[in-house]
Amino acid sequence: MLFLVAALMLLGVTLGTVAHAPLGLSAVAAVVIAVWLGIFALRERHSRRRASH
User: Residue 39: how many CB atoms within 10 A of its CB?
Assistant: First the structure.
């Protein structure tokens, strides 16, 4: 339960920050995060394929 409360508070702080930031800055941050997650996913997939052989 405490974890859920902490997660909701963190989400509120994050969304509050995005609401006050300019739209362009929010879009750039979203693209950077998406690229970062995509690279991470590709690296994980590649390392799992190599480990399974």
Answer: 10
